[in-house]
């Protein structure tokens, strides 16, 4: 029986040297199969140029605006790095697939579905981690500093980058790196039961983790279904905002029952203006249509009191109704060369209007609530106590 052999090639996704190394290793090893860090969806997009059609209205309704914006900025960053090196993102994977076909080897898609990965990734991030990640990514993308891609392949530099990523967002590192390392390692072990010689082409950031996972999985196999589950986790930020909203509602009730109608109207006016102005500012910063800005201003006071609806959803849908972004707009967005070009894109503009309106509304909710409570001398302990009594009474 021929001895089993697995060779793992760690690559930079936008490095010419990586493309050459992949071809050399496959020619030298003459494998039965070539495993690549791709899922079926990414494979079809890379090989056949098939992009999934995305409805901006569905993105807004499902509350995935920030996640899609993150993906777009990440893709833009990777493409800009590729332009500096003269190599398109994914070229090393295409080289591996082409060389596998030339050698008569099977192509194995060992990565987890990209949609599952991003969904799990976004669900596990805290609100602060989301802000930190987007900030670091935007800063890196538009800083203008040159990136030495080939240096990223050096082990010590790579370890440093992974450690920095874990500092910024431990949860993101676990989903985007650790889980996928285990997932790909498990698929490679399964493949070794069918093939004698395999060359695996993966990102340099995954090689070390996959090698460690292979050793562990031989003794403790993993159930891949557990890594494919998308659970509805609790969002502590949403719980906080929900509790804060309940506090505001209780404040209005207390004002209505303890003070005169004039004071209640005054408190409501403050709430309306603070929420409306800050939400409208967010829509304006996104260069939204005047009707979207007015919509953000008028609906923010109400959506801030309703945890099921966000102001950005409403203004974003109005922006989509006016701009009418198409699949072609999304395709152009993916290929945008600059931030200015992205801002001129209808699809991106709708997403940005929805996102920044929500940011303005969130700030307005917190600041507006604090202003009303402090201005009208509301006894917060009394309001909370009454709400707790009501909840307990409803349960009994």
UniProtKB/TrEMBL annotation:
Top-level taxon of the source organism: Archaea
CDD domains: TraB_PrgY-like (cd14726)
Transmembrane segments: 235-256, 268-286, 293-314, 347-373
Alphabetically ordered keywords of this record: Membrane, Transmembrane, Transmembrane helix
NCBIfam families xrefs: traB (TIGR00261)
Protein name in UniProt: Pheromone shutdown protein (TraB)
